[in-house]
Amino acid sequence: MRYWKGSISLSPTRDYPLLRQVLHSGFITHNQLFDLLRLDYSASSRNAFNNRVRRLVKHGLLIRQETPLGNQGIVYSISHAGASELVGRGEHYVQPVGKARSNSAQSGLHHSLELNAIHLALKRSGTLVYWMPETEIRSRNDLTSNGYRKYYDAIVTVRLAGQDCRFALEYERTPKAERHYHAVRERIDQETAVAHFLYLLPNHDLLWFIANSLSECKRAIYFGLYKEFLQQPLTLPVRRSQSPVAVSLDSLLTQRKVVQHSGVLFPDVVV
Question: Is the pLDDT of residue 136 over 60?
């Protein structure tokens, strides 16, 4: 088959998974992108991957970000054309293409890269079944009646003790105004689609602040440290607000109990 000069033919098994991963991540480093694709069996040769990325940048489907993060290496985001191409392939994406996530404020760059590190830690653990990114959560929330009460950073499903366990993940890198956490408490209390909630924080002071801000929530929210999660994702010690007792994340996800919420009994486990 012949192509117009300057056009690009996209591989459904190599190019589209790569573009999709960048869209889901918002911002992603060169190394993170390769590692995630390699773990998904969508990349194997580093040289071939490098050439593929350069080709997608050259044709305007990826944006190579100019950032001061010398220790992070090259950072990419999706372009208008790249997002449009994925939408045409049925990708879950509700933001107007003209406002692709690559145009978001640079303040979200660090959050995205560290969220990618969380995703990678779970992938490397061998327990990750499915990582639902915020783009898919937004699509479900905005376009269907089967969404979630909040735009979580991710909905994570892991396989533990022969069962699929699901939890809502939030990575809070910086504190927000008190009114923000009041709204979060209301939304989590109304959540019916997921039973477990995990907040990861970069330090103990912020952990204390967020836990205290969400302490009036009727649902059980658990808190852990970001760096500890990267080292031991499923055995991470987590604590509930105002509780001195730490439990491991895997034991929390696999326990079976029934809790009372708004006068309705429901199992506090994931299915």
Answer: yes
CA dihedral for 168, 173, 177, 178, sign (positive or negative): positive
CA distance 39 to 53: 17
Confidence (pLDDT) at 241: 83
d(CA 178, CA 169) in angstroms, rounded, equals: 20
User: Cα(16)–Cα(54) distance, rounded to whole angstroms?
Assistant: 15
User: In this structure, are residues 22 and 93 in contact, taking their beta carbons and an 8 Å threshold?
Assistant: no
Give the helix, strand, coil percentages of the chain, each rounded to 5.
40, 20, 35
- How buried is 197 (Cβ within 10 angstroms: 0-12 exposed, 13-18 middle, 19+ buried)? buried
pLDDT tier at 9 (50, 70, 90 boundaries)?
confident
pLDDT confidence band for 65 (50 / 70 / 90): confident
Walk me through the domains of the chain, giving residue ranges and CATH numbers. Answer: 8-104 (1.10.10.10), 106-271 (no CATH)
For residue 214, the model assigns a pLDDT of 96
Cα distances (angstroms) measured from residue 228 to each of 121, 147, 166, 215, 249? 11, 30, 20, 22, 12
Say how far apart CA 255 and CA 220 lie, in whole Å.
13
Q: What are phi and psi of 187, to 5 degrees?
A: -70, -40
Residue 141's alpha-carbon distances to 22, 86, 144, 146, 221, in angstroms, are 21, 19, 6, 7, 21
pLDDT digits (tens, 9 = 90+) for 176-207: 998 999 999 999 999 999 999 999 999 999 99
Name the one residue in this structure whose structure tokens are 């639902």: 132
